[in-house]
Write a structure and sequence with these properties.
354 residues, 9 helices, two-stranded antiparallel sheet, rod-shaped
């Protein structure tokens, strides 16, 4: 009976070794200490906190990446708008005292450019209008194809048609007022953007980049975000461009004979475009600084996550070399235990039969 008791003890020891072997085999397979928080006690709470911090930083990185994609599209649109302003600034220089043929050609180009500008202000990224502020589901310029014949363009054309008799300053003021107007039927911009309580009052769109840190990046179609317009200006680079293009589009070749009225008016168009070019340069520079800040923040999150992931690994993961060594040792012990059980069983049966 002592032999049978010995077998029982050996079998109990073998069962414990088998359980230990199962754990070690799983650890070698997945590299983790265990599937439950009890397997990493007493540092389970710290592991939970570390993982939460990693997830939060990954979410910020994702948000920043989407924002940088949006600002990249914004920069492209701003660059093209600057090119258009530069083109017509140059045309205004050439137009002083030139022939009616050039005036007609520039007027036609300006009408086409107004539609392009409107479409650029309606640029979208991932289904959102990037110049629309929080009203990102609707176009900032509702009728881009009709902008050259809309209220603002019509009012400017009426003012330009009355040019002559020494009234250049009056015509310039009228075109300025038309471009600055937010009245329905005059402004080409959406009702939301033109509402003093909504688009005209809302802050720039911003992105959460870290705990307690929001970075403003949004640019609105009808007002400057980070730039200051100076000189002959409506106070908005977008309005300055549209005003200038509408003014060019309204010119009649016969008006070249008006002398200083014509040259003074064209000079106002030129200076308006110059103001838009300067403001767009400032806008793009400010947005570039925002992009650099976001990129630096994303890198910081990435670097911190590397450190946090290493800390989580130290808590949750096994030392693979040590675990493999223990697995091999346990396998050896278990094999020895099986041999001992086999020998003991044979001796006990012989004794029992004898």
């Amino acid at each position: 009976m002592n032999g049978i008791g010995s077998i029982g003890r050996l079998d109990t020891g073998a069962a414990a070794l088998r359980a230990k072997l199962d754990v070690l085999t799983r650890q070698v397979s997945d590299g983790r200490k265990g599937p439950g928080y009890g397997d990493i006690a007493p540092e389970a709470r710290r592991a939970v906190d570390l993982r939460a911090d990693i997830s939060r930083r990954e979410a910020w990185q994702g948000t920043i990446a989407r924002t940088l994609a949006r600002t990249d599209v914004t920069q492209e649109a701003l660059g093209r708008l600057s090119d258009i302003a530069t083109q017509f600034y140059t045309e205004a220089i050439r137009m002083d005292g030139t022939s009616g043929v050039r005036i007609s050609a520039v007027a036609a180009q300006a009408r086409a450019a107004m539609e392009e500008v409107a479409n650029l202000l309606n640029e979208r990224y991932a289904g959102e209008y990037i110049f629309g502020g929080t009203d990102s589901a609707n176009p900032p310029v509702p009728d881009p194809r009709g902008v050259a014949t809309g209220g603002m363009a019509t009012d400017i054309a009426a003012a330009v048609a009355a040019l002559g008799g020494g009234n250049a300053a009056t015509v310039v003021a009228a075109t300025l007022a038309a471009a600055q107007s937010d009245a329905t039927g005059t402004t080409p911009f959406s009702t939301f953007l033109s509402d003093p309580a909504q688009g005209l009052a809302e802050p720039r769109r911003a992105v959460p980049a870290a705990d307690g840190e929001r970075v403003a990046y949004g640019v609105l179609a009808n007002r400057n975000a980070a730039a200051t317009s100076e000189g002959e200006t409506t106070g908005s680079w977008a309005r300055d461009i549209l005003r200038g293009l509408a003014g060019f589009a309204a010119l009649d070749p016969a008006q070249a004979q008006l002398g200083t009225d014509f040259t003074d008016f064209v000079a106002s168009l030129r200076e308006g475009m110059r103001s838009a070019i300067d403001a767009l340069g400032e806008e793009r520079g400010a947005l570039g600084a925002v992009e650099q800040r976001l990129e630096a923040t994303a890198r910081r999150h990435s670097e911190v996550n590397v450190a946090l992931t290493a800390q989580v690994a130290a808590i949750e993961e096994v030392d693979m070399a040590e675990t493999i060594s223990r697995l091999q040792a346990t396998q050896t012990q278990l094999e020895a235990s099986y041999r001992a059980i086999s020998v003991t069983s044979g001796l006990t049966l012989t004794r029992f039969l004898g």
